[in-house]
Design brief:
Two copies of one chain form a homodimer. The first copy, chain A, is of the alpha/beta class and 326 residues long. The first copy, chain A, is built from eleven helices and twelve strands. The first copy, chain A, has a five-stranded mixed β-sheet. A three-stranded antiparallel β-sheet of chain A has the order 10-11-12. A two-stranded parallel ribbon of chain A has the order 1-2. Chain A has two domains: 1-38, no CATH class; 61-285 and 294-325, Alpha-Beta Complex (Enterococcus faecalis V583 fold), CATH 3.90.1710.10. The longest helix of chain A has 25 residues, at 194-218. Chains A and B meet through helix 9 and helix 10 of A and helix 9 and helix 10 of B.
Chain lengths: 326, 326
């Protein structure tokens, strides 16, 4: 084919899109870069932002935040219930991943998870009425990060869900996470069928009390050494948690078996954990949350203390600022 | 210092040692290589040996042996008792690591382990009378390798010890190993005090039956996939078995807890395994033994099917030959 442009030529266009369109219309290949100048083109604001690079006050603040991050020692101290443990948690509140978002703007999987949580809580008897309830405006939706909590994927946490309680050694701050359900049809991917709700109830009624008894017997469990060993064994403790889950199981089992807790419940709990290589994920997330929260609130610091998405928007929180949504 | 030799010069001497001695006497530095010609200097035998390199019959035999090695699929099928399971095991026989060795020639740790095994078996009431019994010539000492078995370090296995039973898929051959005692004062390092004997008895009376019940519930356990995963997680499944031990524990525990076996025994067994990162070692050794035995006995093959030391001598066994001791 004859074109105005040589074979193999490719053009990257920044700025007015019509330039790229003309090239394509002429038979060439062009990629349009989606770019805007810093600070939305505001020169004064852009210059102010640029001044912050290597700014001595920011550097000092960042050193302080980073030191607090490194000094943090997340310890698993037990299991609680979201409605009782999480700061600011309310009776009809559902937490979610990422920055704030209204029901109508949520992506499908997050809406599915919220609907599942409503059924799980018993606020509605089925998914249709749960959806109507969610649309009705009486349920409060807030980011888990605003309540010292994290959860994978949809990150949905409702008041009666069990949560890991992670505390930085010294008791300076706490972080929380829900318990990992495994793979397949699970709430965090937006599934809300009967088996999902049934598993969530079993997790609250059997798994959490069994783990709670085991942790009471074991005592506080330092998570950094366990994570360090798992990293050496090939985990990145996010999408690969096989080593960490095994190491955690190995730590918890002797205590569980000597806790005096109902043997059948322990057996079921252990079987569930042994079959879920992702079980440690929620612990690693909460441990990171505890460490990063320790670095939060240092005036002037640009240290990133949270990055989180809700499926629609992505949020970044800096230590010296409340949060930013992009 | 003034010498006959330049600074930094170092001499490696092969052959008559007096050359090296003269250099050292003259103020120089010389290393004497402990070397002898092949076949002990016998030119005809040496030439015959050299002919075997790349010999088509040996190559064909080695391909056959290697294929059998690769095709082997070691599966853990249960736990037995050495005296009943091991081929050729006799009532007053004690197996040991490495090539054949008489009591008088054994190194201290192996003698210590043998003495411990005699006390454990109840053939003598204390270590002094056990030593006299071992010296007396009524106990038969044979290499574990001659009875399809392996064991770490001293490798001592006596008739009433529990053994892992590993079978190659298809049932072509079996290999056995004792159970790992952990670190510290243990029989395999030559310790034979009361706590060592007590632990061995607990292993036979509690650990082995608990594991046996768990394995009966679990069914045959393929060891290659477990070892492959452990290798990816940083183990070499000899001196580093942290991953393999954890993965094994994760596989065995749900079955153990649902086996109906005495809960206290299961709890103690699991606690013991969870506290011993070397627990899998004996399983990996027996798995390798099963795989290498599958390659043994191919006429003309120089494929190495066993390498083993007893602390004094080192033995190498080739597929087409009985064994060689160097």
């Amino acid at each position: 084919m004859s074109t105005l442009f040589g074979e193999g030529q490719r053009i990257v266009n920044v700025g007015l899109q019509s330039f790229a369109e003309s090239i394509v219309a002429g038979g060439g290949k062009a990629v349009q870069v989606d770019w805007t100048p810093p600070a939305g083109g505001d020169r004064v604001a852009g210059w102010s932002l640029a001044q912050l690079l290597d700014h001595p006050e920011v550097e000092r603040a960042n050193e302080k935040a980073y030191a607090a991050y490194l000094a943090a020692q997340p310890v698993l101290v037990g299991i609680g219930v979201a409605g009782k443990q999480l700061p600011g948690m309310e009776a009809r509140m559902i937490l979610h991943a990422g920055p704030p978002i209204d029901w109508a703007d949520m992506c499908g999987p997050m809406q599915g998870a919220v609907i599942g949580a409503i059924v799980y809580e018993g606020w509605a008897s089925d998914v249709d009425s749960a959806r109507r309830l969610a649309e009705g405006g009486t349920i409060v939706f807030e980011p888990a990060h605003h309540h010292a909590a994290v959860g994978p994927m949809a990150g949905v946490i409702s008041p009666s869900m069990p949560v890991w309680v992670i505390e930085n050694a010294g008791g300076s701050n706490r972080a929380y996470s829900n318990l990992n359900e495994g793979l397949g049809k699970v709430l965090r991917f937006g599934a809300n069928s009967g088996e999902v709700i049934k598993r969530l109830r079993w997790m609250a009624d059997v798994l959490a009390p069994a783990l709670s008894a085991a942790l009471a017997k074991l005592g506080p469990l330092e998570l950094k050494p366990l994570i360090a060993q798992a990293l050496q064994m090939g985990d990145e403790v996010h999408n690969r948690n096989a080593a960490a889950s095994s190491l955690f199981l190995k730590r918890i089992i002797p205590a569980a078996l000597h806790s005096g807790f109902d043997a059948a419940a322990i057996a079921d709990a252990v079987t569930f954990i042994a079959g879920n290589d992702h079980f440690f994920l929620n612990l690693s997330m909460a441990a990171c949350k505890a460490m990063l929260d320790a670095a939060h609130g240092v005036k002037g610091s640009s240290f990133v203390t949270a990055m989180s998405r809700n499926g629609v928007r992505f949020g970044v929180r800096l230590s010296g600022y409340r949060f930013a949504v992009v």
